[in-house]
């Protein structure tokens, strides 16, 4: 086996890059006599069909943090990390049925815009700043780092050049074309992403089985490490702190997923760009089915890599190349890039194109959403209230460029990360519970007031930091224990909601807020297709958890 790229690997990868750039620039072009306006740039002219929405949701979501970070977590802890994907399928159904009808009815461009309509401009600005900071300093930075890590591991490209190359690739079409370029290239990206991921999984399992195929390989992996196929971890497991048993199903995982899929700009923006509510819901349903498949291409390879490095016979067959960039429990994120080294010539190019598709599509999505929030909620609100379409689109491009430069400067500093996926979840979990509390009460409790929501949003950060810092700082005290971050998120969202409810009742003495949302009869009615599809997703989830419970 060879770990080097061959001619056909380079050919396939370059062809993929040219295809994405070509399609991105082609759909970005201005029609004759038409100046691109804010709806064109930020919402793709509200023209996306269901299949483009579903594909774009997955392409925006699946990035280096899944391919590399989640495979690393699979290497370290096993299939339990797949709960993020399988619970996301259920969360998508909730978002499609109960959140989207309200968002689309209000004709939103951004999630902070909903905050302004339901609460106030002040709270919108607070949350807009939260999101911009989160996207730039956590999401963009981590995706760039993990992508560059893959380039460094597989092709020997120095980290700094990998960061710059990925940043320029994502910027080449997304800054010019906006959401339209991002969404339509995502349709192509998701094909590469899934096919390339399946190829990697198949060949890794085929290697483990000694050439006897996928099923034999999966059977052997299960026989070798059955403990790594437990979905619900007990307290004796070293990874319990990251995936705390049954709380994964009934606790903080819901905070992470409801926030991410329901109130995260770079995800929900695709559904806001739909032709209609029904089209958006069909796209959500497609994404939910695809989510059931994702662990097969991002978690199973990590578990397979763990079996391979602990099998002397397999390692001997890999030769000296097998010792190059070897993953370990301390450097679990090397598992997926390590596997890619051993794919046959040609297929290595396909698999690497899949990884690049995941990275670049997510970078483009995050850039577009960062620029949307900054332009629509900061620039047009405070800097240039009468901005023309031309200056609005121009500012969108400039702000995306600045965000990318900041992230590119910070990315190389993340070199000491172990499981990057868990890092993202943990630090997003400081901000997300407060935002989720504000939105859930704003959507479904008419008595929630603006003042109470601001108090809750600001209070959520010290509450979250208390649970993150205090238990560790008082480890010798019987009062405090080391709290898993999923418990931290669950406790934070509940306490924040209590703060908001008490403040609202004190302010209005139990009366409805004047901006409270009237839930009209029939608002949450969904089509027979959505209902049947949702039922099928839930049946599959029950079967999966029944088989892999422990």
Describe this entry's structure for a reader:
- By secondary structure, the protein is an all-alpha fold.
- Helices cover about 75% and strands about 0% of the residues.
- It is built from 23 helices and no strands.
- Helix 4 packs across helix 7 (about 120-155) and helix 20 (about 420-445) packs parallel to helix 22 (about 485-510).
- The longest helix has about 35 residues, at about 345-385.
- It is globular and about 70 Å long.
- The two termini are about 35 Å apart.
- The model is unreliable at about 475-480 (pLDDT under 50).
Characteristic key phrases:
550 residues, mainly alpha, 23 helices, transmembrane, transmembrane helix
Summarize the structure.
With about 550 residues, this protein is mostly helical. The protein is built from 23 helices and no strands. InterPro entries: Na/Glc_symporter_sf, Na/solute_symporter.
Structural class: mainly alpha
As residue ranges, the low-confidence spans are 473-480
Gross morphology: globular
Instruction: Output the number of helix runs.
Output: 23
Topology, element by element:
Elements: H1 7-28, H2 38-43, H3 50-61, H4 64-77, H5 83-105, H6 111-118, H7 121-155, H8 159-177, H9 179-208, H10 214-224, H11 247-250, H12 252-263, H13 265-272, H14 277-298, H15 300-309, H16 312-318, H17 335-340, H18 347-383, H19 389-410, H20 420-444, H21 450-473, H22 485-508, H23 528-547
Helix pairs in contact: 1-8, 1-9, 1-18, 3-9, 3-13, 3-14, 3-18, 4-7, 4-15, 4-20, 5-12, 5-14, 5-23, 6-7, 7-8, 7-18, 7-19, 7-20, 7-21, 8-9, 8-18, 8-19, 9-10, 9-14, 9-15, 9-18, 12-20, 12-22, 13-18, 14-23, 18-19, 20-21, 20-22, 21-22
